Amino acid sequence: MFLLRRPPRLRPPSASRILSHLPHQKPTPTSPSRPIFPPPPQPRWSSSTGKPPPEDEEIHQRIIPHNRNPYTQSSSRNPYSYRTYNNDHYIRLQAAKPLRGPSKITTRAVILIATTAGLLFYFSNLETVPVSNRTRFNVYAPNSSTLQSVAEMSYKRLLIELEDQGARILPEWDPRTVRVRRVMQRLIPFSGNMGADQDWEIFVINAPNQANAFVLPGGKVFVFSGILNLARSDSALATVLGHEIAHNVAGHFGERLSQDIGKNIFLFSLLLLGGVIGIGPLIAGWFGTSVIDVTFGNPMSRLQETEADYIGLMMMSEACFDPREAVGFWGAMETVGRREVERGGVDVPEWASTHPSNANRIKKIQEWMPEAMRKRAESDCSTTGSTAEAFLRALERGGVIVMGW
């Protein structure tokens, strides 16, 4: 009887046993970084003679001449130099400059052309303001179709607003309308060619609580009856009407439209920049408009108002009105302004306003007064002056009916 022996249990070999049967290898040291310029081939030296074998000496002399240092001297002309083996091309590519792309050249050309065209457009539209001799940028001629169309649109819109407010334009036979027309007839001959060539239309609006007056391009004059209560004399009324005529004579309306061109370009550029840096169009537009108004728009508007004060003062002096009445009129306007502030109105500082303060206006008029009085003396005011003085005395007595004038 045979006994079957149980076979031995096989165990998986351990890692140590596997590694012990592998041939022993020395770890390979980490190779240093490869140099950019490989070293030249070194000859094999003989230990017995101390000289390289003849075959290596010949190769060494052929590749590296003895009279040249391979690291300091150029070998671009030596066909047997070691640097001819893919080294010159690498050095040339490493030292090469990037090529100019057509996009960069096109962008610079566009910027240069646009800048040059903008400068030519600006300097070709510079002109001198009459009377004040100020140089300004103005695109629109006084009688241009653009100004006429804008003035016509403003006129129609104003009539609609007045009708909505219930305001009424006084008829031509009304004493207040007659008085305004009489003063205008004396001022227009001294407004220069630009004023004399226009067809003036006078509209007196029955608004006792509104002291205002303005002139649209083309000669449409709007006077609110509230300002007639402050201008008690014809000379004081000539201060207001002369100021408004001066705006038209100086072409301030077209100048403001010309300034809007640069303003719109600035706002458009700011909107594009806001889109790039992640600012919303409303915030960018509000910021740009505020910056333009404070730094450029309001100061330029105050300059135009001061210019109209000067031109109007000289005009009324040549028309034989008393320029000293201008000081009293703006003093009355200052009193009205203080009363409005006391009633809860907003006291707008001058730097945030489109008009100079009444105090500064009075100061400027006093500085111009010697010149204005000299112009009045040079005019033939003997007959006109006596008539105006008689009218003022009768007006103070309250016994004047101006309808017949």
TrEMBL record:
Gene Ontology MF terms: metal ion binding; metalloendopeptidase activity
Stretches that traverse the bilayer: 265-287
Residue numbers spanned by region Disordered: 1-79
Record's GO cellular component terms: mitochondrial inner membrane
Cofactor dependency: Zn(2+)
Name of the protein: Mitochondrial metalloendopeptidase OMA1
Source organism, top-level taxon: Eukaryota
Domain Peptidase M48: start-end pairs: 177-368
Cofactor note as given: Binds 1 zinc ion per subunit.
Species the sequence originates in: Triangularia verruculosa
UniProt GO BP: mitochondrial protein processing; protein quality control for misfolded or incompletely synthesized proteins
CDD domains hit by this protein: M48C_Oma1_like (cd07331)
Biased composition (Polar residues): 69-79
UniProt keywords, alphabetically: Hydrolase, Membrane, Metal-binding, Metalloprotease, Protease, Transmembrane, Transmembrane helix, Zinc
